[in-house]
Structures are given as C-alpha cells and as structure tokens.
Amino acid sequence: MPANKSDADAPSFMNNLIRELRSERGWSQAELAQQLDVSRQTINAIETGKYDPSLPLAFKIARLFGMPIEMIFVPEEE
Amino acid sequence: MSRLSQKQYEWRVLAAMSLYMLCMLLEWPLVRTATRLSIKCLLALVPVVPMVYVIALLARRIRASDELEQQTHLIALGIATAVVGALSLIGGFLSIANVVMLDGSILIWVFPGLMFCYGAARWWVARRYGGNMFCEGDSALGKYLRFILAGGVLLLVGWLSRSSLDALRLGFLCGAGAGLVALGLVLAVARRRHQDAGE
C-alpha cells in the first residue's frame, strides 16, 4: 500500500499492489518502467499513490502481471 | 516518434544554446552596420534559428513523453504562460501609461522568461508527483554542475566581451552568471546533504 500522502501531493483515488507484485518478480522500478514503456518517475508516482494511471496503462499493468485489474487497483477507502 | 534520452536532449539543447550565444557575439554586431533592409532583416533573424530548434526539441520531447510526463509538461507550460502573460499585460499597461519606459527590445525576454517559469513550474509539479530533483537519471551532467557551467560560460562571455559591451549588458551578464554559479553551489550542498541523509 502507498505511503501516507500529504496535502501537498497530487490527489489520487486508488491504492495498488504494484510495489509488492514488482518485488515478487525481482524487478526494479526502471525495469518495470521499460516493460510498460513509461518513465521510472511514473512507476514511482503510481506505487506511492501520488498518481492514478490511465485506463490503458492500468490494463497494460494488469496484463503484464497476469492478474485482473481490480485485484491490482483498489479504490481508496474514504 | 522515437524518444530522445535525457542525455541526447540536453546535449542538443546545449549545442543550440551555444550556437545562439555565438550568433549574438559574432553575428549580431553586423546588424548595426548593415545598410540594406533585406540584409538587416536576415542578420537580425539568424539567432532565431537555434531558438526555433530548441522549441522543436521541446515539442518532440513532450510528444514522446508518457502520460504523467505530458501532464507535468502541460501543467508547467500553463503556469508559465499565465505568469508571463500577466507580466506582459502589467508591463504593457504601465508602458502605455508612461509609468515605465519600455522599448521593443523587451520582447526578446518573453521566451527566456517563459522557459524559466516553465522550468520552475515543472520542478514544482514533478515534486507533487514524487519527482526527485536529486535523481539524475541518465543526464549527462548533474543539475548543480549544469548551473555552475552555464554561469561560468556567462561570466567568461562577459569577461571576453567587456570592452565591447555597455555597462547594462555587462552587468546583466556578470549578475546572471554569478547568480547561476551561486544557485549551482546551493544545489551541490543540498545534494550532498541529501546523500548524507540517505546513508
């Protein structure tokens, strides 16, 4: 789950398991970024909960990890 | 469109800016001595060529960016446009009211002002998304080194041109150069402290 966010951070509405899934496979953020054709900063922003990916990117992530999208991205509880 | 690496992008911008400075130092003085209007126009617009190349590089970089990078670029450009637009309005109205005396040469500062505001805004927006200014990625030079190098180049240019520049331009070159070097040193200290805190 992403680290606690402050008010200065960009708002996001989803939690995700990307860091855990990435670690299980022994991938670095740079390696995951390369596989998804995005920057390492984007992966870092998604993992820390500062950015919610677009639908195409979310589906790309789900396909890469071989899991349903709703098992990777979970709405943040209010 | 293929994506330029950070290193490729920076070297190309550096080459274009170096060409621009060479134009201003060596070619621009010829504008004043040219008598024919067509030649005068041509010589006056030569420095625009490397600047248009820099704009094309920026456009290419934004087009090849991923979704978060594009969002960051566009928010930063929006902020920069708002700031420079507001300043232009303020300066324009003050000039019309004869409160400040501005001639047409002030327009040459619109693009550098826009790029400066864009850079600052992009840094701030990237921070909100967890961007780390101390993560150099594949940059050819550390950020602090780039500021020190740029400041050093301005100081060198000022020194070499000191006999041909008026006091205002010489003062601007020296002030801007010293400011960039000072900023680079501050960033170097901050980077060192960040690295020490991470150990």
Structural write-up:
The complex is a heterodimer of chains A (78) and B (199). Chain A contains five helices and two strands. By secondary structure, chain A is mainly alpha-helical. Chain A has a two-stranded antiparallel sheet. Chain A starts with 13 loop residues before the first strand and ends with a strand. The N terminus of chain A is likely disordered. The mean pLDDT of chain B is 84. Chain B is an all-alpha fold. Chain B has eight helices and no strands. The longest helix of chain B has 32 residues. The chains are: A mainly alpha (78), B mainly alpha (199). Chains A and B meet through helix 3 of A and helix 5 and helix 6 of B.
Order of helices and strands of chain A: EHHHHHE
Q: How are helices and strands ordered from N to C of chain B?
A: HHHHHHHH
Rounded to the nearest angstrom, the radius of gyration of chain A is 12 Å
User: In DSSP terms, counting alpha (H) and pi (I) runs of 4 or more, how many helices of chain B?
Assistant: 8
Q: What is the end-to-end distance of chain B? A: 40 Å
Oligomer kind: heterodimer
Average pLDDT across residues of chain B?
84
Interface with most residues: A-B, 17 and 13 residues
- Tell me about the biggest sheet of chain B? none
Helix content of chain B: over 70%
Q: Radius of gyration of chain B, rounded? A: 19 Å
Strand residues, percent of chain B: under 5%
Percent in helix of chain A? 40-55%
Strand order in the sheet with the most strands of chain A: 1-2
Describe the structure concisely:
The complex is a heterodimer of chains A (78) and B (199). Chain A is built from five helices and two strands; from the N terminus they run βαααααβ. Chain A has helices at residues 18-24, 29-36, 40-47, 55-65, 69-72, and strands spanning 14-16, 73-75.
